[in-house]
Amino acid sequence: MSPAVISSSYTPEDGAVKRPVSITGSQLSAHRQPEKLALTIPTLREAENLPGLLSHVRSALDSAAIPYEILVVDDDSRDGTGDIVSAIALEDPRVRLLVRKGERGLSGAILYGWHHTDAAILGVMDADLQHPPEVLPQLIDAILAGNDMAIGSRYTAGGGLGDWNAARKLFSAAAVWATWPIQRPGIRAKDPMSGFFLVRRECLDHIEFQSSGFKLLLEVLVRGRIHSVAEVPFDFGCRDCGQSKANVKVAWDYAKLLARLYAERFGFGRHSES
Ligand SMILES: Nc1nc2c(ncn2[C@@H]2O[C@H](COP(=O)(O)OP(=O)(O)O)[C@@H](O)[C@H]2O)c(=O)[nH]1
Ligand SMILES: [Mg+2]
């Protein structure tokens, strides 16, 4: 995949991304900055959340000891997201907007952001303030301490699922349990379904990931070259504004991802990279 236009301003572009997606092959890789963080924030109709979110994220990252950039990857929401992010980017070039046209999918949006950066540390968080920005410095510290990956975790001691009802908690616990046989012994994460994590780019080089669905972390844990994982607790917050985009297709994409990872893990399907 060739790198598309990268800009700190609103640049509608042809965001077509081939499936599956690899974040390597980018000419940017030759110029990587060793300890820079690129935090991707995928958005689909999140305009109301963005001013508050970006303000919180920028202050949290300003308190961390590394250079950073924030990549808002918007799937052509047409709800004012472009104007809001462009205005912030004008005063802070570390904030950039990437627009994908004709594409949908949370995992694909994350990969698209990661492909369009030279940073050595890649991260993702949701736009709806369910992931608390104040946890970001702890995630960064965990990476700088030598871990390949740092996960904002709802299932490790001190974390929580917010106001979820019993049925949703049960469904989530079952989905986590289903990952246990395919997660790699020694680096099994308690919250492999989190959408809030950082990972060292070198762990992902030359691996293709599924661009549909919401659960990129699980695939990274299973197929990435990850040797150490830290989980940092956080309490899953309430969505600030707007509506969840999780739907039946997301559940179906998760089922397909699980099936593929099981097939690869137990040798009755397409073989993965080690
Ligand atoms: N770019 C992009 N972002 C998405 C898409 N689907 C969801 N998101 C974003 O992914 C994040 C998590 O989605 P959300 O609807 O809050 O999922 P939930 O927390 O599981 O209910 C939010 O920032 C969404 O705007 C998509 O198809 N494309
Ligand atoms: Mg959400």
Explain what you see.
By secondary structure, the protein is of the alpha/beta class. The protein has one domain: Alpha-Beta Complex (Spore Coat Polysaccharide Biosynthesis Protein SpsA, Chain A), CATH 3.90.550.10. Helices cover 30% and strands 17% of the residues. It is built from seven helices and nine strands; from the N terminus they run E-E-H-E-H-E-H-E-H-E-H-E-E-H-E-H. The strands form two sheets. The protein has a seven-stranded mixed beta sheet with strand order 4-3-2-5-7-6-9. The radius of gyration is 17 Å and the shape is globular. The two termini are 22 Å apart. The N terminus is likely disordered. Guanosine-5'-diphosphate (GDP) binds next to strand 2, strand 3 and helix 3.
The SSE string, one letter per element, is EEHEHEHEHEHEEHEH
Query: Given the structure, what is the number of helices?
Result: 7
| The CATH fourth-level homologous superfamily | Spore Coat Polysaccharide Biosynthesis Protein SpsA, Chain A
Number of strands: 9
Biggest sheet: strand arrangement = 4-3-2-5-7-6-9
Give Rg in angstroms.
17 Å
Report the principal-axis shape: globular
Which structural class is indicated by helix and strand composition?
A: alpha/beta
> Which fold does the CATH topology refer to?
Spore Coat Polysaccharide Biosynthesis Protein SpsA, Chain A
CATH hierarchy, class: Alpha Beta
Associated small molecules:
guanosine-5'-diphosphate, magnesium ion
CATH architecture name:
Alpha-Beta Complex
N- to C-terminal distance:
22 Å
